[in-house]
Amino acid sequence: ESEELSLEVAGRVIGRGGEIVRDLRARSGVRIDVNQSPLPGQPRRITYQGPRAKVEFAKKLVQMIAAGASDSDLPLGEAKRAVLTVSSSRIGKIIGRGGAI
User: Fold this and answer.
1) Helix, strand, coil distribution of the chain in percent, nearest 5
2) Between the N and C ends of the chain, which has fewer C-beta atoms within 10 Å?
């Protein structure tokens, strides 16, 4: 299933370096692809692949992002949130150089 997104909304859905779209995939359990090569000035096409209920959930998440919600406002869905205590001497190993991880 697919739908069109304005360039502005597509940018929010993709996020910096694809961060948001990866998060949406994890939350929904759906494959989400955004056309990276639209014609100039044309909307982008977003495609969802997965079971119907999960696709509907993914579309709801995209609608929330389009309405201005931040990732912290979104329901977790299939994603998990955990709190870990890490010593200050080890935190650099988790974050990685320049926040790469």
Assistant:
1) 45, 15, 40
2) C
